[in-house]
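Incident review: delayed structure delivery

Summary: a single-chain prediction request sat in the queue longer than the usual turnaround. Root cause was a stuck worker, restarted by the on-call engineer. No data loss occurred. The affected request and its eventual output are reproduced below so the record is complete for anyone auditing the incident later.

Affected input:
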Amino acid sequence: MNVLVDTSVWSLAFRRRAHQLNPGESAVVAELAELIREGRTRIIGLIRQELLSGIPSTAQYERLRIALSAFSDEPIATADHEAAAKAANACRAKGISASLVDILIATVALERSWLVFTRDPDFQAISKVTRLKLHKPRN
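Output delivered after worker restart:
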């Protein structure tokens, strides 16, 4: 099954140095590497934009941009945005507030029957209102 990898996971792998990671974070990066080897990783343009935003130097930006160029963006259709709005409304009705970006990520995964690999707790909350399934590192 394909896995839509959230910004929080990509960021550990591409924006942090290995020696800065704690054991749990290292396990997440190792799992991402395995998913990449298996050809199961997916990304959308908003995640790419989040990753590339806030990079302090042009050289760092270019290194990350080039590394991410190995991954094609999943196209987002009008129906995805409409489904995301519906999911956001359902979450709000249950007292769950999540960012529009997180709701769109969750909805893209749901609409394609993918898992989401994330460290962001908002996705756990979203999964309580939707059928969203989260990917966990294998040990």
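Verification: The beta strands are 3-5, 41-42, 115-117.
Action items: add queue-age alerting; document worker restart procedure.
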